[in-house]
Each structure stands twice: as structure tokens, then as C-alpha cells.
Design a protein that fits this description.
Largest sheet: 3 strands, antiparallel
Strand content: 5-15%
Oligomer: single chain
Number of helices: 7
Number of strands: 3
Order of helices and strands: EHHEEHHHHH
Radius of gyration: 19 Å
Structural class: mainly alpha
Number of domains: 2
Strand order of the largest sheet: 1-3-2
């Protein structure tokens, strides 16, 4: 499988960030051309260990485009509340780590994952926090701290406490919390 894209060094840096990759790896995935662009070739098992995954990650980001987030915090809140009430369980990995996931087994989604359209999701996102997605220009910058707060509720509190914690956060942000069940 070979595919070629023309992208700038800035686009590579935005997509990959530091991510623990040194300049050797970055130089391995692109070649300079006279126009300050890089001819980016995706080749199966390209480079050393992990390079195939890195190339595929960058390729997916270019193909998928940016995750677009509603600008209105009320819309974001309503999407998450409806999702939380419908799913009523945490989205976590099946291994013993119990790590929260944007997309978990059996179709589960965390609160931020509920905001990621299926055509913008891919498994490599699982290793990046919401703020990391925003900082790498994978997700739009709208409501980033609010979404991180929603993510914190999902990842930290028991499911039975979600309505109360969502209500607290919603009221703190001046949002309508009527979609939540009445407080006990």
C-alpha cells in the first residue's frame, strides 16, 4: 500500500507533536522538497518499530480532517447528557487497567467520545487526552476546558453520581440542566 500526500512540516508537527518521537523518526517519515512541503509516503511496515503505526496515524488524521465540536456549550452539554442517560455505563477497556476510552467495547463511548463522529474516530485517538487532541489540531478548540470537565466526570465518578455531577457542572456554566433527572 503506497499513498502520497503533500503536507507542510507544520502540519506534521501539529499532528504528531512531540509524542516521544525524536528527529530521527520525524526525518524518516518525510522528505524535503524545494517548496517547503514534504512528500509523505505511507508504506506498510515503514521504518523501525512503531513507524508503520505513526505513518498510519498521520495518514488517518489527514484523511479524517478535524473533529468539529459545537460552539454552543448548551449543545455540547445536551449531547453528553442524553448520551450519559442512554448508555448508563462507563466506556472502559476490557483489560484489567479499566482505562476510560473514547470508544469502548460493545459500542460504548465516553462523554468526549460521544462528541466524536464515527467518521472522525480511529483507535490511535485512545492514547491522547481531549486537550491533547485540541493541541494537536485534531479537535476544534471550542469548549475544550468544558469538555475536559465532562470527561473528568465520566472518568472519575461512579455512574450513579453522573447526573448530580453533570448538574453541578451545567449550573456552574449557566446551562439549562432540565434534561437531567430531578435531584434526589
Amino acid at each position: 500500500m503506497t499513498d502520497t500526500k503533500m503536507i507542510t512540516m507544520q502540519e506534521i508537527d501539529n499532528l504528531v507533536g512531540d509524542g516521544g518521537f525524536n528527529s530521527f523518526y520525524k526525518k524518516s517519515i518525510y522528505k524535503h522538497d524545494p517548496f517547503e512541503n514534504f512528500n509523505f509516503e505511507i508504506v506498510e511496515n515503514f521504518g523501525g518499530e512503531g513507524m508503520g503505526d505513526l505513518c498510519y496515524y498521520v495518514y488517518q488524521r489527514l484523511e479524517a480532517g478535524m473533529i468539529q465540536i459545537p460552539q454552543d456549550p448548551q449543545v455540547v452539554f445536551d449531547i453528553v447528557v442524553e448520551h450519559a442517560l442512554r448508555q448508563n455505563c462507563r466506556s472502559t477497556s476490557l483489560d484489567n487497567s479499566n482505562d476510560c476510552m473514547y470508544r469502548g467495547p460493545n459500542g460504548t463511548k465516553c462523554f468526549a467520545g460521544a462528541l466524536i463522529p464515527d467518521d472522525k474516530y480511529f483507535p490511535s485517538l485512545e492514547k491522547i487526552s481531549w486537550l491533547g487532541l485540541v493541541n494537536r489540531n485534531i479537535a476544534e478548540n471550542f469548549n475544550k476546558t468544558f469538555i475536559s470537565g465532562l470527561q473528568f466526570i465520566h472518568d472519575t465518578f461512579p455512574v450513579k453520581e453522573w447526573p448530580e455531577k453533570l448538574r453541578e457542572l451545567g449550573k456552574e456554566k449557566g446551562l439549562n440542566v432540565d434534561k437531567l433527572p430531578p435531584a434526589e
